[in-house]
Amino acid sequence: METARQYDSKVLIEEAVVGSEVGCAILGDDLNLFAGTVDQITVSHGFFRIHQEDEPESGSDNSTVAVPADISEASRSLVQETAKAVYRALGCGGLSRVDMFLKEDGQVVLNEVNTLPGMTSYSRYPRMMAAAGLPLADVIDRMVSLALAGNGR
Q1: What pTM value is reported for the model?
Q2: Count H helices, E strands: the chain?
Q3: Within 13 Å and on the Cβ side, how many CA atoms surround 11?
Q4: CA triple 71-74-79, angle to 5 deg
Q5: What tens digit of pLDDT does each residue of 100-139 get?
Q6: Contact 103, 109 (CB under 8 A)
Q7: 19, 23, 26, 54: which has the fewest C-beta neighbours closer than 10 Å?
Q8: Nearest 10 degrees: CA dihedral of 47, 51, 53, 54?
């Protein structure tokens, strides 16, 4: 706390969550949501880094992302339904990636919501959608349609 207060007067303390990091790409509006295939991040050492700064296309030096996640079908379904519920509860529209932790007891804990997820060749969002049968061109078509309909917020 003392070290953190050297940088700011406000300090956020979070409970450590022991579990596997999973994510789910969501596309659509309140009534018609499409959930991508759940992915899972495995970190070999240190803190998670999605990619290396100098050559992001080469991936991360300490983590791998598996699509689909190496979890049970029931857990995948729970992650997708939780992601949809979070998306709706926050009033999201268009697209978002909902990141969560899957604990050993099967409980899902919200980590963060990325309201403008990466859309590069090495980004998680398009990889989750492609694994669910929705290639990037179709994702973009749906995003434009939602925006034109006023449902992409």
Answers
A1: 0.85
A2: 4, 6
A3: 9
A4: 75
A5: 999 999 999 999 999 999 898 778 999 999 999 999 999 9
A6: yes
A7: 54
A8: 130
